[in-house]
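hi! just following up on the protien thing from before. the input was this:
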Amino acid sequence: MHEPLTRLKLAVGEVVDLQRAAALLEWDEQVYMPPGGAPAHGEMVATIRKTAHEKLTSDDVGRLIDELEPALPSLDPDSDEHRIISVTARDYHKAACVPSAFVAELAQTVSTAQHAWIAARAQSDYSKFSPHLARLIELKQRYIAFFPPREHPYDTLLDEFEPGITTADVKALFAIIRPRQVELIRSIADRPQVDDSFLRVPYAENDLWKFGEEVITTLGFDWTRGRQDRSVHPFATGIGPDDVRITTRIVPNEPFSLFFGTAHETGHALYEQGIAGDYRRSLLGDGASLGIHESQSRLWENLVARSWPFWQHFFPKLQQRFPTQLGTVSAERFYRGINKVQRSLIRVESDEATYNLHIMLRVEMEIAMLAGDVSVNDLPALWNSRMQEYLGLTPDNDARGILQDIHWSIGAIGYFATYTLGNVISAQLWNAFGRANPDRDADIARGEFAPLLTWLRSNVHRFGRKYKPQELVERVTSSRIDPEPYLQYLESKYRRIYEIT
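and the predicted 3d structure came back as:
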């Protein structure tokens, strides 16, 4: 078995190299590429994605998998050899269902759609993006048809981001979370509102950027293997564990969006930087799923960077940078301000208590689009009515409504549910770390983040894709994915902030 496994690793290494080269081009498109470069970039990405797909689905790889799969029962299921073979076989069989010409077509369509979305968002004109979205929906429906029918067509797309999780699982999760969060929001609405006026005054963008850099350096971001830039929509891209790029953006009248966006993307980056080096050129060298990835970003953004112990340490440093804005503000008042609950139009600016309602809205619309229950042209009206129903708000323009997120333009349909899954998993991991380290909050209040990062590296990061998400959560927390710890965290936190008895 040693010789065919070595050959398989070499073949897959070339596939991974190509995938990461495409990721680097896609990062450049959103960060540094001049607008006129879009057509050439689209062609290059299409060629690279197609070539990677053809290499993965080649006859040679197929023969190696046919030779190696029978050996799986004799291998330790926990061994790297078993997982490399099984994960590669899973990806191979899935990819083999999809023609390489389709992969190229989708990649080029996505490249064009991203730039159409950027222009449409800048002009707040959905009509400039809707033809591209219609094309993407058509391609996603074609993609679903390449595979055997499942209980729900959306299952096929969800499986791209969250292996083993179904549409029924997501709906069941939403059914548990929605009423508890709605009740929490109602309880908060009956209380005096938090004063966050000190967050709505001008802050020097460069100083906020430098403060964010200082913080994420303390958290453990390795600048020799990563960098930060600006983009229209914040994102993180791993070009391998030794090259992880994060971006953020400046939002008018929301100065701390920059900081919390940086904290969020750093959570993704820390995960990528922590994947075992042995997996560098294998299909194990990515995150277990987008839900696990989002658990890391939401953990560092919310459970850490929005926590009281965190600001016990960092608020004096922030106050020194901004004496005019924060000189008379106490740490407790600042903590309450950054955790203010307020219905808002923008998902990435929303608070923890309302965030999942944004996600539910988007998932429901994706399911409706794929099922043909709503046309692309009718989406803005549906979006606005659902926003009014769920959050009591109606967007005043497309940029603050249906065009606010990049995900549909990059073909990431089936992705949004992973944010709620990430929230849920983050609380389970947080509790598991707390049980392992009773000094958790005291460490954070002293600015000591190494214990948390080391624990995450040992229990989550290093495994990459070795385990499926449900399997990984059970290994770390001794429980399946369970919303109860997350709901208890939210209720406890906001009862304290809003003094709800």
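The radius of gyration is 23 Å.
Residues 167-497 form a domain with the Neurolysin; domain 3 fold (CATH 1.10.1370.30).
cheers
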